[in-house]
Design a protein that fits this description.
Number of strands: 11
Order of helices and strands: HHHEEHEHHEHEEEHEHEEHEH
Largest sheet: 7 strands, mixed
Oligomer: single chain
Mean pLDDT: 86
Distance between the termini: 42 Å
Low-confidence stretches: none
Helix content: 40-55%
Number of helices: 11
Structural class: alpha/beta
């Protein structure tokens, strides 16, 4: 009898592989972890091979899983192309992301989202949380990933970030000098929190570098020009939190939220994948 692969089980396998988590794969599919496990078991039974090894801390592919991976991707690509005949115009998902929320994870985030939603065109805008929320409220964006704003309610929590004062190990702050700070321009919420904290602590500061994006701010810190208030999750290698050493005020934590008002099933599925991918990368 000819063996026939089930698309749903192959999709579950790819999500587990890409997100390295049964929990995140279940979130992306809008189902339970147990359901994803059953799909994988059916696929492994059908192929007569063990594809995934699980441990309390990690999920990784077996040798057979690695060999099956490109074939699984090819099958899903062919499946998506076949469906595209019925829907020739790709839907557009417009997404706004706060620069302080995305950071260096933006590239893998978009790569994984694109790989999992080949029939969905993406429009991504990067900016301040306040600007992204204003555009979202005006109906210009389908969804936004932003830092939680004041009393605003609703949304889905993606991560909880701890902030610190990041600089290079060679950073020097001569006694008596104002603290050189690198930030984004107003109305950046992180900038406002950091400068208020310094003022409250009675620490003199000077805004020695104002960047157009978090990448530029981090570059200034890496160059030794200043200290930058950043989330630990997005602080690049080469920077360390000098706050405790220099007795700088604590900046606390901030919640990254996903706000969405889409009702289309395809867009909802894409956003589930987006949320699961974000958590997967943030937890890595």
């Amino acid at each position: 009898m000819t063996t026939t692969l089930d698309i749903a089980t192959v999709q579950a396998f790819l999500l587990v592989s890409d997100l390295q988590s049964f929990t995140r794969a279940a979130e992306a599919l809008g189902t339970t972890q147990a359901a994803v496990s059953l799909k994988l078991q059916r696929l492994e039974t059908l192929l007569g091979k063990r594809l995934v090894e699980r441990s309390p801390r990690a999920v990784k592919l077996t040798v057979d899983g690695v060999m099956f991976l490109p074939r699984a991707r090819a099958l899903m690509d062919a499946h998506d192309r076949a469906l595209s005949v019925e829907t020739p115009t790709a839907q557009l998902l417009s997404l706004g992301i706060s620069d302080h929320a995305a950071g260096p994870e933006l590239v893998p985030l978009l790569e994984r989202l694109h790989a999992m939603t080949t029939q969905m065109a993406l429009s991504v805008t990067i900016g301040f949380s306040r600007e992204m929320l204003d555009a979202y409220d005006a109906g210009e964006l389908d969804a936004v990933i932003v830092r939680q704003e004041g009393s605003r309610r609703g949304g889905e929590k993606l991560s909880e970030d701890e902030f610190g004062w990041f600089a290079t190990k060679r950073f020097a702050w001569p006694h008596g000098d104002a603290l050189p700070v690198a930030t984004l321009a107003p109305p950046c919420g992180v900038r406002a929190i950091a400068l208020r904290a310094l003022d409250k602590a009675g620490i003199a500061w000077t805004e020695s570098f104002v960047g157009g994006g978090v990448t530029a701010v981090a570059a200034a810190a890496l160059a030794g020009l200043a200290v930058a208030p950043l989330a630990r999750r997005i602080a690049p290698p080469g920077l360390v939190d000098i706050g405790p050493t220099h007795k700088l005020p604590k900046l606390g934590t901030s919640t990254v939220m996903l706000h969405s008002k889409v009702s289309d099933p395809a867009k909802l599925a894409a956003l589930r994948t987006l949320a699961a991918t974000f958590r997967s990368v943030a937890d890595a």
